[in-house]
């Protein structure tokens, strides 16, 4: 699981990074709001840990961004246990808070609790994620880096096939069968190639080097790892 830590005190930040890596987490470390925002466009995080006081803004701003755009669980760090700080963070969508100074074991326990709760909730949400792409199947909307993108019916159906079979190699025949009831007799080998290219153009940061929909030479395609 990949965690984002945004903490301007480098001593605290490096201590958190080391301890959480020892617990098996992958950690991206940032020291300000601007760097954290860039990290959001480059990675998909399982959970975020935000200090409230940052040199170019506040953890409140990041908390709102993480929850509204990516629906990522958040734990806030606060230097004081003032009720107003905690309440504001929770109102903006934070899942939990911890007051400095704290013991690392207390933080890891809270991380596990939030992830467990979030995992249980996510199973009821009908939301599928592929790298920086999020698919809300309830309203058939697709988001890239938090921004809604428009897909045709066939593109959307094709994306769903990949998303529901993440990591699995799919042959062209399997893809044909999956989109047949949307496109009828209009789907042929060339058409499939065109639609995969269109999907990559809309979803990938670099369509020439795709990481969401990959070509597996001689076999077909697969989504993700």
Please summarize what this structure is.
The chain has 225 residues and is α/β, with parallel strands linked by helices. 45% of the residues lie in helices and 23% in strands.
Which features would summarize this protein structure in a list?
225 residues; alpha/beta; 13 strands; 2 domains
Question: How many domains comprise the coordinates?
Answer: 2
Low-confidence stretches: 181-185
Number of strands: 13
How far apart lie the N and C ends? 14 Å
Give, in order, the helices and strands. Answer: EHEHEEEHEHEHEEEEHHHEE
**Residue fraction in strands:** 15-25%
Largest sheet: 5 strands, parallel
Task: Give the overall shape.
Answer: elongated
As laid out across the biggest beta sheet, the strand order is 2-1-3-6-7
CATH topology term of the largest domain: Rossmann fold
Helix content, binned percent: 40-55%
Look at the structure and name the CATH superfamily of the largest domain: Response regulator
How would you describe the overall organization of this protein?
- This protein folds into 2 domains: 2-122, Rossmann fold; 127-223, Arc Repressor Mutant, subunit A, CATH 1.10.10.
- Helix content is 45%, strand content 23%.
- It has helices at residues 10-22, 33-42, 59-70, 83-91, 104-122, 153-163, 172-183, 189-203; strands at 2-6, 26-30, 47-51, 53-54, 57-58, 74-78, 96-99, 127-130, 133-136, 141-144, 147-149, 213-216, 220-223.
- It has a 5-stranded parallel sheet, with helices on both faces. A 4-stranded antiparallel sheet has the order 8-9-10-11, covered by helices on one side.
């Amino acid at each position: 699981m990949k965690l984002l830590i945004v903490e301007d005190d480098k001593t605290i930040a490096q201590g958190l990074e080391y301890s959480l890596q020892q617990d098996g987490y992958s950690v991206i470390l940032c020291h300000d709001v601007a760097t954290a925002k860039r990290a959001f466009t480059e990675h998909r995080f399982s959970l975020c840990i935000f200090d409230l006081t940052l040199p170019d803004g506040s953890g409140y701003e990041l908390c709102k961004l993480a929850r509204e755009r990516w629906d990522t669980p958040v734990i806030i760090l606060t230097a004081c246990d003032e009720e107003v700080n905690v309440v504001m963070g929770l109102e903006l969508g934070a899942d939990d808070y911890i007051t400095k100074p704290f013991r690392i074991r207390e933080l890891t326990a809270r991380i596990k609790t939030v992830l467990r709760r979030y995992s249980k909730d996510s199973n009821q949400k009908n939301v599928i994620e592929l790298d920086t792409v999020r698919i809300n199947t309830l309203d058939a909307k697709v988001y890239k880096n938090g921004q809604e993108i428009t897909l045709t019916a066939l593109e959307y159906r094709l994306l769903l096939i990949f998303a529901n079979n993440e990591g699995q190699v799919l042959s062209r025949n399997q893809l044909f069968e999956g989109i047949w009831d949307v496109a009828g007799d209009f789907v042929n080998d060339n058409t499939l190639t065109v639609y995969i290219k269109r999907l990559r153009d809309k979803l990938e940061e670099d369509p020439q080097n795709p990481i969401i929909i990959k070509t597996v030479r001689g076999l077909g395609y697969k989504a993700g790892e």
